[in-house]
Amino acid sequence: MNAMVELKEVTKRFGSFTAVDAVSLTIRSGEFLTLLGPSGCGKTTLLRLIAGFETPDEGVVLLDGAEVTQLPPYKRNVNQVFQSYALFPHLSVRDNVAFGLRMQKRPKAEIDARVAEALELVSLQGLEERRPHQLSGGQRQRVALARALAPRPSVLLLDEPLSALDAKLRHAMQLELKRLQRQLGMTFVFVTHDQEEALTMSDRIAIVNQGRVEQIGGADEIYHRPATRFVADFVGQANLLEAEFLETRGAWTRLRLQGGLEVSLPAGAWPVNTSKALVSIRPEKVHVSKAPIAAANVFEATVTDEVFKGAMDHLSLETAIGTRFAAIVANESALQEAIHAGDRVYCGLHTDDLVVVRIG
Amino acid sequence: MSGFDLPLFPGERRPGWVGWLLLAPLILWMAAFVVVPTAILAVYSFCQRDELGRVVFEFSFENYVRVLSPTYLWIFVRSIGYAALTTVICIVVGFPAAWCIARSSERWRSRLVVLLMIPFWTSFLIRTYAWIAILKGEGLLSGLLKYLGVISTPLEILYTPTAVVLGLVYAYLPFMILPIYSSAEKLDGALIEAAHDLGCGPLRVFSQVILPLVKPGLYAGVLMVFVPAIGMFAITDLMGGARVPMIGNVIQNQFFQARDWPFGAALGCVFTLLFVVAYALWQRRSQPIREVRT
Q1: Which residues of B touch A93 (CB under 8 A)?
Q2: What is the C-alpha to C-alpha distance for residues A335 and A322, in angstroms, rounded to an integer?
Q3: What is the pLDDT of residues B196-241, one digit of tens each?
Q4: Are residues B85 and B165 in contact, defined by beta-carbon separation less than 8 angstroms?
Q5: Is 0.95 exceeded by the ipTM?
């Protein structure tokens, strides 16, 4: 797939603060890419660099193969859905959606047809004459979307567009955005701090932290194979334990985890010539049972705390030698023997579920 | 508590007794100092005066016939012209200034607005006299320009239309800047970015987004400058000498020098009527389109 947007060694500083630090990023044509990170991480600045609202201090921005580094936003074939929607309050829904096309000086018949088409895409037919203040939050969101789609940009930028909606509506819009993106085959660049949103919609996710892209990849890759401590910690919940290399014997490497617990994993999973690293274990990957279980790594632990959350039980565990970690188990059946605080349990870890994360 | 049901939308609800109570001081004030004097003015305008300048209650249209004579019509036209010129200059100078203040950082914004207000801490008359000192033949400006070798003979600005318009602009500029500023300050910066994003160059951002959204402030500014500028007599008196009388000067003259109150009243009535008609026409034109609710 060819590149629609390319950032090469792009740096953006605001005073002494470096918002974007030598980022190189390639966004493929027709993909749904999400920039995910905590607030202030630089993800919005990245988006603004693509839109043209900011020009980089260093580096190059390419759009569809052409350099646009110094090009103002009104000369870029890119449209944005703003976090605040930024609908023009003095214009009707129709005129808002027609705005971009009018600026391109399209013939009236074409404008009318494409406005109707855009409004149909977002299911807003019949509201053409309303003003933004007469619409609900969800409707405004759709107008903003239709307005940005109507000029048929080569890239659609979305700056946390769902953050102002309530949870239910937000979830519906996530699916709808994904459907829309597939239907149009358009490149979407979506900014959010909500990992669930990112996991739901994206073809690929770029994890942004402190002005840098920490990891880029598909949702499952990001979730199951976090490359850095930050990614492991930020996306989903993780038990991050310091691990010390003990020995490699045959196909297995033995490690001592923080607190003293010893585990083994396939020799190839441990980076060569490394004495210390982190091991990330997702809480739902910890098998917990009152009866003995079979797994590569089995040990006994005490349940120190238990929080019932309906479908899931959140447990805090501690081994006899003092390694603490969290586990999430499904409450499969009411008849199943429940696990409570104070219980002695068997824990099992599959070797594939121990993910080694380099320090630093 | 129905007493607190103040009307949010005029015409939809009538104020309860608390509402009326809150409005009472204003209503009394307006009745005593606007409605009653205007009524007296209207009555006087149809009367005549005797040799001593006393009002004689004898009905006549004579005052209005005089008002419509070329001499006075010309003064009306000139007053409107000067006021219009003042308004235009105030827009040209004030709009960019208001925009800059509204778009500057919060810290600077409040400081700049205070700077705008500082002139009001000094009496308006004193400030006008200061202008005389600056503009007069051997004044500050003339002296400076002579010192710099720009001119050799003293400036002759004072007591010309230029001085009058300068004085009017100086006096009313803040009244243009403040309402525009308050409109511009509310304008969400994201709207400008959205317009850029959708293909607007700087000029079209101005005409398509900024101007329509700042219009309420601009209209308010025009009203606040144009209306008082037409009737202003102090500046025209002091800076224009007697050479460029405006309608305000003529009316003031009729009451204080010529002692022809009925004629002054007739001028005043025509003047007021002019505003009422102009305002009504303008209101109709700029009436917002009734919002469609489905």
Answers
A1: none
A2: 31
A3: 999 999 999 999 999 999 999 999 999 999 999 998 888 888 888 8
A4: yes
A5: no
Q: Can you read off the two tokens belonging to residue B118?
A: 């500082």
Distance between CA atoms of residues A200 and A162, nearest Å:
13
Give the model's pLDDT for residue B10: 52
Question: How big is the A-B interface in CB pairs under 8 Å?
Answer: 65
Interface residue A77 vs chain B (CB under 8 A) = no
Which portions of chain A are predicted below pLDDT 50? none
**Which CATH superfamily, name and number, covers A3-226?**
P-loop containing nucleotide triphosphate hydrolases (3.40.50.300)
CA distance A132 to chain B (A): 11
CA distances to A129, B192, B231, B246, B293 from B237, rounded to whole Å, are 53, 45, 12, 9, 54
Type of residue numbered B237: D
CB contact under 8 A, B194 and A103: no
Query: Which pLDDT tens digit goes with each residue over B83-138?
Result: 999 999 999 999 999 999 999 999 999 999 999 999 889 998 899 999 999 988 88
- Residue A116: per-residue pLDDT: 96
pLDDT, residue B1, reads: 41
Map residue A329 onto helix, strand or coil: strand
Hey, what are A280's tokens? 């990330």
Cα gap A319→A13, rounded to integer Å: 47
List CB contacts of A42: < 8 A, sequence separation 6 or more: A12, A19, A20, A21, A23, A208, A210, A211, A212
* Chain B residues inside the 8 Å CB shell of A53: 193, 196-197
Testing the interface with A: which of B183, B186, B196, B198 to mutate, by most A Cβ within 10 A? Answer: B198
The residue ranges of every structural domain in chain B are 68-286
For B22-42, what is each residue's pLDDT tens digit? 999 999 999 999 999 999 999
Using CA atoms, how far apart are residues A240 and A226, in angstroms rounded to an integer?
11
CATH number of A239-357: 2.40.50.100
- Give the gap in angstroms from C-alpha A155 to the nearest C-alpha of chain B: 12
Flag whether pLDDT at B150 surpasses 90: no
Distance in angstroms (rounded) separating the CA atoms of residues A177 and A170: 10
The alpha carbon of residue B86 and the mean position of all alpha carbons in its chain are separated, in whole angstroms, by 9
Secondary structure class of A188 (helix, strand, coil): strand
Domain residue spans of chain A: 3-226, 239-357
Q: How confident is the model at residue B13 (pLDDT cuts 50, 70, 90)?
A: low
Task: Kindly list the residues from chain A whose CB atom is less than 8 angstroms away from the CB atom of residue B209.
Answer: 88
pLDDT for residue B63: 92
Q: How many residues belong to chain B? A: 294
Decide if B212 and A151 are in contact by the 8 Å CB cutoff.
no
Residue in B190, B195, B196 closest to A84 by CB: B190
Residue of B nearest to A144 (CA): B194
Can you identify the CATH homologous superfamily of domain B68-286?
MetI-like (1.10.3720.10)
Q: What is the pLDDT of residues A238-280, one digit of tens each?
A: 899 999 999 888 888 999 998 888 888 888 888 888 888 999 9
